[in-house]
Amino acid sequence: MNKRKRKKWSARQSSKRGTVPGTPVFIGESRSEAVRIGSISYDRGDLVEKGALSLDDVHRPYRSEGVTWINVDGIHDLKVMDALGKRFGLHPLTIEDLMNTSQRPKAEVFPDYLFLVMKMMNYNDETNSVDVEHVSLILGEGYVLSFQEKEGDVFEPVRERLRASRGRLRGNGSDYLAYALMDAVVDHYFLSVERIGDVIEDMDDRLLSDPRSDDLQRIHELKRDVMTLRKAVWPLREAVGKLQKSDASFFGNDLDAFLRDLYDHTIQVIDMVESSRELLTGMHDTYLSSVSNRMNEVMKVLTVIATIFIPLTFIAGVYGMNFKYMPELDWRFSYPVVWIVMIAVGAGMVAYFRRKRWL
Amino acid sequence: MNKRKRKKWSARQSSKRGTVPGTPVFIGESRSEAVRIGSISYDRGDLVEKGALSLDDVHRPYRSEGVTWINVDGIHDLKVMDALGKRFGLHPLTIEDLMNTSQRPKAEVFPDYLFLVMKMMNYNDETNSVDVEHVSLILGEGYVLSFQEKEGDVFEPVRERLRASRGRLRGNGSDYLAYALMDAVVDHYFLSVERIGDVIEDMDDRLLSDPRSDDLQRIHELKRDVMTLRKAVWPLREAVGKLQKSDASFFGNDLDAFLRDLYDHTIQVIDMVESSRELLTGMHDTYLSSVSNRMNEVMKVLTVIATIFIPLTFIAGVYGMNFKYMPELDWRFSYPVVWIVMIAVGAGMVAYFRRKRWL
Amino acid sequence: MNKRKRKKWSARQSSKRGTVPGTPVFIGESRSEAVRIGSISYDRGDLVEKGALSLDDVHRPYRSEGVTWINVDGIHDLKVMDALGKRFGLHPLTIEDLMNTSQRPKAEVFPDYLFLVMKMMNYNDETNSVDVEHVSLILGEGYVLSFQEKEGDVFEPVRERLRASRGRLRGNGSDYLAYALMDAVVDHYFLSVERIGDVIEDMDDRLLSDPRSDDLQRIHELKRDVMTLRKAVWPLREAVGKLQKSDASFFGNDLDAFLRDLYDHTIQVIDMVESSRELLTGMHDTYLSSVSNRMNEVMKVLTVIATIFIPLTFIAGVYGMNFKYMPELDWRFSYPVVWIVMIAVGAGMVAYFRRKRWL
Amino acid sequence: MNKRKRKKWSARQSSKRGTVPGTPVFIGESRSEAVRIGSISYDRGDLVEKGALSLDDVHRPYRSEGVTWINVDGIHDLKVMDALGKRFGLHPLTIEDLMNTSQRPKAEVFPDYLFLVMKMMNYNDETNSVDVEHVSLILGEGYVLSFQEKEGDVFEPVRERLRASRGRLRGNGSDYLAYALMDAVVDHYFLSVERIGDVIEDMDDRLLSDPRSDDLQRIHELKRDVMTLRKAVWPLREAVGKLQKSDASFFGNDLDAFLRDLYDHTIQVIDMVESSRELLTGMHDTYLSSVSNRMNEVMKVLTVIATIFIPLTFIAGVYGMNFKYMPELDWRFSYPVVWIVMIAVGAGMVAYFRRKRWL
Amino acid sequence: MNKRKRKKWSARQSSKRGTVPGTPVFIGESRSEAVRIGSISYDRGDLVEKGALSLDDVHRPYRSEGVTWINVDGIHDLKVMDALGKRFGLHPLTIEDLMNTSQRPKAEVFPDYLFLVMKMMNYNDETNSVDVEHVSLILGEGYVLSFQEKEGDVFEPVRERLRASRGRLRGNGSDYLAYALMDAVVDHYFLSVERIGDVIEDMDDRLLSDPRSDDLQRIHELKRDVMTLRKAVWPLREAVGKLQKSDASFFGNDLDAFLRDLYDHTIQVIDMVESSRELLTGMHDTYLSSVSNRMNEVMKVLTVIATIFIPLTFIAGVYGMNFKYMPELDWRFSYPVVWIVMIAVGAGMVAYFRRKRWL
To answer: Which stretches are transmembrane (chains A, B, C, D, E) (predicted)?
Structure first.
């Protein structure tokens, strides 16, 4: 399961080899579901929500006021993407990146719009691994486009707030909406990191006392999950930092504090990810030394047992010799004396080993 | 114990997921104590100290001269925080950070005030771990607000000095007070690092001669404590550096040397923390090689014992054979001769092993 | 095979020692094939393709419009290179670098042309190693020169697109052609990284359950392949970054987005390479601990067997003693009783070891 | 011994906790010797040297020409330090740093003077450890103050040169004197690094052939010594670099080449320190693998001995069986034949093990 | 041998302790050979070569055209160096650095001349180590001074080219000559790295199949050689980079491409050095795991042998017991049956171990 995921994000790029640069090709797990397009248009007063739009209903909004958010579930259909690209004046390379699930997070400023690539993270409790989904945002004047691989997202709370007219959302422009969506994605990272952190801590507590044979495998898998998160957050941090400094005025000045806060959150996620990595590295060492400790203990006990009996066997061997003239053999109490000697030797060795703390 | 602490600083963030950004939610261990607000107002001449203020008594000071320091113990009560936020004109994101115990140290300049997040550190001798407390400062014109999770802090010496009219404190503005509070927090870091350093050195001295089975666990715990300190000081250093360079004039020029000194101190704490980390890494190696050394010694001795007796047992076995025609069996002095041979072989092997320094 | 490759890129440089700097000398595996020169001239309307040009047919194009792409297969013939250098006004150091297969990737701006060194990568499924080929581009006004070590390249798709008049290629200048060639090289890196990635994953899945004795060797070889890729991509990233920032106007402004995309791709290759490295490092550890685990298991089982039989042998030895007065020897049921005792001791030890999970 | 040292530099800082910032408190090993103040005043012509000055004799020099160097041995007496501070117009934080032996090296520019903290290093052949002493310089117009913990310093050669009127010293200003003192301190670092380097090399040569049980401890101690040096030189390098770039004109332009030279020397010390560290890390590995090699050799030989005798014992055991019908027992030459067989088996095994190079 | 070398470059610095800064003292292996001075003066037309000049014949050239190259073999004679220093107007610190063989590579711009310190490297096939020689260049207007420790250098090819009037050398100024000398030194680095690389590869191929006991020592020595190279090239890279950027016009603009090429070469040497380092680190690991593998194999085989015979010895022991009532003893075919049982048990165990791949 975990493997499938890894491949999705990093491989397949080669399938594009040989095509014209800027030729959009879907890179990712092949899908056949129909593309679903939904939209929410709102201003301070009204909100109109439409589900399952046909491609013909989607236009670049020309309303002077209000914000339109168009969400596209499914990015594998070239025809749909091309049509959207044309209507919203997207650069061919943008469409290429929209459809390329192996594209790393970034922010790019085009004359007409701001293009943002992110990764949505979800810790899957069933497979015990992190699911990654490719999400892109287009922020233009008065509209936001969001693209996802499949239905089901982390944007639901934002929709709720829009509908409920809660918070600042309704009274602000498309830039604030884009910020809210980015914030929703980053907030979700915390959940993933924390879930992984919990798994790590549960394991860590058990590791020294009771190492299991599949723990090493599990630690490696967790390391990969953490790496996946890291690879999603690091470039996002960079992208958000770029947005902060960018001269292009896609984000109003009143959003400065919010972008700064978002940037802060990405740093915090990175901090937590780094802590997890260090913990995992420590656990790897702990596991190895714990396993080798147990092994050593076993070998020590076994060797002690052998060491105690080998001299005793020698004594028995001595009196098993068949010499004609062995005075002890004829003595009356030789046998019990030998037993006493053997017990004394054995007990003495056990005592010695105890005292030396070898047993 | 240690674990609870770690969780507090890094986890729980997810409980905020889905809320509007800038919505203050308390993130940390849930508390039920009432919030306690105290204030000290002073100028060069007078000092008025009030304890257990009710929320209604707290106002933004409008006195043209003098400094007001309001200290809030308890940050979990949203109502109180909201009310304070309104009266002092705090940005919603500031209130959010005030209440978020997992927020990392930082300095943020707002038009009206300077916002500072720090971590108070305390080495707890009972649990042998570092207690972390979330502390925030708001520095405005003529006032300083300080927020803590619970009563009992490192600010007592500052209060003492204020009351005693000692030092520069009374004659300077709110910026100097804020500096004094930051200095008190950083000074306390030294104590924690030194306490950890003492524990490390005590352990280090014993480790090579007498490694104990729980030492590894202890080393890991100390590493985490050191990491906790590191995570508190690194961003604080950055924050102080930012204050030094910042154009915003919350700190007067006459404080330059003091901020530089504070910055120096954070670097020194980091130096000490890094030294501790290296020591701990070295101790980890020492422990492992010390354990493996002991194990090897044990195995060597045991194997030597076995190796000495196995040839002797063979000799005894030879004369335990039942052949009819074994001339030695009938000889008169075979038995003592065999004993002599066996003793000679045994002694020879011991001598050889001694000479080779295997025993 | 692998070794030959490594040498090619890094060694042989010394053969140049003592010559005048800027004296072109071929550095690489000696070759004897004739140099093959081909050219494609095109504008939006026409395309003329010529194969196997003689040196006399190659001129710096003076057509005001259209682009000429001259591809040279074989860089070992000093005479040919010198002649080309003169006709296209190349700096002696450029010719030296063109012929030096150990030259690392770079971009250099000369007054008249832009000089680009790259490495072509090909994962060879037969030798299971990465083949490296030295490729250089010269971008001048209206022409592009490409130099390769031998026939067979990654530029075929670009030629196809030129012939088919597909994409932007035909309608753009020589800068776009140069970009398309660079893009073809970088796109091919993905293929190599992915092939290596597949080999790594296949191995990783098997490693814990069934480590083979040549795995370590294989891991080392893969590490070297990954290093080879890394050494090709890192400086290329730098070179592309330089092109982006360069004031020299060899690349038109309309290519900015494309260069940015190319830069992005190099970063992505580096990301994948770094992931592969980390995986390989992890696999190295896994292999070692897996091998040592198996060994430990074997030793444990063997030691357990010995430990069970040594006490039993001692018991047998006791009743092999020849004392005259050993009451047990004469008892009627001594023999079966001893058997029972021995079986009980053996079974007891097995049970104990089982319970302790040593067996 | 070594431990005492470490503590001195890094601990004790906490004793200052709770005091007003800028309150000078002596931090270091408590001392009771009286403070000794000496001075040398000179210009190109004359030199006046005074020893054991009383506090009242020390004044800020007002001579328009010439240089006064005041050296203070002993920094633990608050009264003395305070008085000096007042007479030379030192900032309270400067006095605090003068008395704080745990202060790290730094350079600070004050309006009136330049403040420099350094560490004097001395490899103590008796304790085999590095002694650290806290040294501070104050460079003002026409005077230099130097502060040390105790008598006996590395400045003697500078004094000699002053008295002998050798070199550039007498003809230059106070800035050159300060440079000469810094140079004397840095020059002394070379001696310490070289002494440690000698110890390391002696040990390294012996380590592979004859590892001793206390070598690991010694390596750790050397690592600490090297770390101590590193912690003294790194910040000093920074400080010297700062002096070079500083606009403040405490150092004349004619000293540029000298400061650059000093900077170079600090880099060279760092280079040597880093080499020593790498050597020590390598030695640590060498020691461990050397110890484990020896252990393995021992175990191998012992196991070979046991392995040779166990089959022989089995053969003897076979003919020790008491079956009635064992034809071999009655044969005439069974016994010598068995001996021959046993010797053949033993010799065969030895030969086999030899050929396999196990013995 | 190797050790002597190391000492030369890093130690001895202390012998200068206590002298006036800028006092030239020879630091290096003491020598007694006479200093040999040779000169070559040339312009495009003529070339005059003089060997074994006396000190009186050496003057700063005042010819308006042409270049004079004065080469000094032997830098230990203070009188000679001082005289040269005076005639060419060298700064005292320059003379100090000229004579200090432990000086690290650097470039320093003085008003009148450019000063360059380099290290000449030579892989000595006899001692299997790298010989280091301290080389300095002084580039002034119309002249170049080169200083070496002893006769025999890497400059011979440059001399040849000068005499043969080959290449650009004769027609260019002193800056080009300085460049050519630097290029000769760097070109020689390639030879050393490649020689070391060959040694490494030969060893690497053998290491897994046939590790020898002195391989570890050899790997350590190679690591040191590589480190020596690294310490020579890193600062040289920096120095060349500084020359490129320097405003001082010691190098004409027409040399830009050549300096860039030289810079490139230093980077390439560093790349090769880093590759060698990684290879050596990998070989260290390979060696250790290869040794431990062999040891494990031996122990496993030995333990298997013991494990097979111990149960058989037990069976023989059982029938060596002297009980009166042991029915088997009297049976007719007991003895052969026991043999069959023992052979079956032994063969069964061998088969089992084989199947488990323990043997």
So the answer is: 301-321, 333-353
The neighbour count for residue D115, using CB atoms within 10 Å, is 21
Indicate yes or no: CB of D16 within 8 angstroms of CB of B187. Answer: yes
Give the minimum alpha-carbon distance from E48 to chain D in angstroms, rounded to a whole number.
Answer: 36
Q: Assess contact for B313 and D316: CB atoms under 8 A.
A: no
What is this structure's pTM?
A: 0.80
Is the CB of residue C317 less than 8 Å from the CB of residue E317?
yes
Report the DSSP beta bridge partners of residue E100.
E27
CA distances D51 to C155, D54, D57, D73, Å, are 84, 9, 11, 11
Closest chain A residue by Cα to residue B293: A296
What does the DSSP 8-state code read for residue A102?
Answer: T
Chains that contact D by 3+ CB pairs under 8 Å?
B, E
| Nearest CA distance, B307 vs chain A (angstrom) | 9
Interchain CB contact of D343 with B (< 8 Å): no
With an 8 Å Cβ cutoff, are C10 and E275 in contact?
A: yes
CA A336, A340, A341 angle in degrees (round to 5)?
115
Which chain C residue is nearest to residue E271, measuring alpha carbons?
C231
The alpha carbon of residue E357 and the mean position of all alpha carbons in its chain are separated, in whole angstroms, by: 45
Q: Do C326 and A335 touch (CB under 8 A)?
A: yes
- The CA distance from D318 to the nearest CA of chain E, in Å, is 5
DSSP3 helix / strand / coil % (chain B, rounded to 5): 55, 15, 30
> Is B197:B273 a contact under the CB 8 Å cutoff?
no
Q: What is the interface pTM, i.e. ipTM, of the complex?
A: 0.74
Is the CA virtual torsion A324, A330, A336, A342 positive or negative?
negative
User: Are C22 and E168 inside 8 Å of each other by CB?
Assistant: yes
**List of residues 6+ apart from C45 with CB closer than 8 A:** none
CB B155 within 8 A of CB B71: yes
Spatial strand order of the sheet with E114-124 comes to: E47-53, E36-42, E67-73, E143-148, E129-140, E114-124, E106-109
Cα–Cα distances in angstroms (integers) from residue D116 to residues A357, D80, D186, E146, in the given order: 56, 19, 13, 39
Contact (CB<8Å) B326/D335: yes
Question: CB atoms < 10 A from the CB of E300, how many?
Answer: 18
Any chain D CB within 8 A of the CB of B320?
yes
Chain A residues in contact with C180 by the CB 8 A cut-off are: 21
Q: With an 8 Å Cβ cutoff, is A31 touching chain C?
A: no
State the Cα–Cα distance between residues C313 and D115, nearest whole angstrom: 82
What is the distance between the alpha carbons of residues D183 and A61, in angstroms, rounded to a whole number?
72
Say which amino acid occupies D166: R
Measured from the Cβ of residue B212, the count of other Cβ atoms closer than 10 Å reads 13
Nearest to A313 among B313, B321, B328 (CB): B313
Closest CA to C334 of A26, E327, B253, D198: E327
Q: Give dist(CA C349, CA C307) in Å, integer.
A: 9
Per-residue pLDDT tens digits of chain D, which is 359 residues long: 344 344 444 444 555 555 666 667 777 776 667 889 999 999 888 888 888 888 888 888 876 678 999 999 988 888 889 899 999 999 988 998 999 888 889 998 888 899 999 999 888 888 888 888 999 999 998 899 999 988 777 898 888 888 887 667 888 888 999 999 999 999 889 888 988 988 898 888 788 777 887 888 888 889 888 988 988 899 999 899 888 887 667 888 888 888 988 999 999 999 899 889 888 988 888 888 888 888 888 888 888 999 999 999 999 999 999 998 888 898 999 999 999 999 999 999 999 999 988 87
Q: H-type helices in chain A, by residue range?
A: 2-10, 78-87, 92-99, 156-164, 174-207, 215-245, 256-318, 327-330, 334-355
